[in-house]
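Anyone up for a design puzzle?
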């Protein structure tokens, strides 16, 4: 893994050795391919410019990334009008809400903060939003998120 904050927050990297002569590695291969497909399907296409490595350049770099994120979100979720809590989505899927929270956590879309879950920048890219409810703030997801789980 690149040891840069940007890489830690925005990249998914892995290395794996699969022994084809080992029958039990077939499932490992299928699981790895599933994860690779997920990475490819959820990858963002950023247009980077050469940036001078000074404070002004770093700010410009961040502005380019933020602009691309906003373009991506507006294209992807412009038609989306319905948002659902993670708990409501879990009921739709017929799985325990705890399991769906853990899935979103493993994907890096939310992170645990004490007893609460917080939306991450990756979660924002998936269309997640923080909403105010009867019991305080919660993370809401566009109905299209079901296609990405």
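Challenge accepted. My sequence:
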């Amino acid at each position: 893994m690149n040891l840069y904050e940007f890489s830690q927050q925005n990249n998914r990297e892995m290395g794996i050795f699969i022994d084809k002569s080992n029958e039990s590695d077939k499932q490992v291969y299928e699981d790895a391919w599933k994860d690779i497909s997920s990475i490819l399907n959820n990858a963002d296409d950023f247009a980077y410019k050469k940036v001078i490595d000074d404070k002004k350049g770093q700010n410009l770099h961040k502005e380019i990334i933020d602009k691309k994120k906003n373009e991506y979100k507006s294209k992807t979720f412009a038609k989306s009008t319905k948002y659902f809590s993670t708990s409501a989505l879990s009921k739709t899927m017929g799985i325990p809400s705890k399991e769906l929270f853990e899935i979103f956590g493993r994907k890096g879309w939310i992170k645990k903060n004490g007893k609460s879950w917080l939306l991450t920048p990756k979660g924002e890219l998936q269309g997640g939003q923080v909403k105010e409810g009867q019991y305080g703030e919660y993370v809401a997801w566009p109905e299209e998120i079901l296609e990405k789980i």
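A detail worth pointing out: Helices lie at 5-10, 25-42, 55-77, 86-93, 97-106, 121-125.
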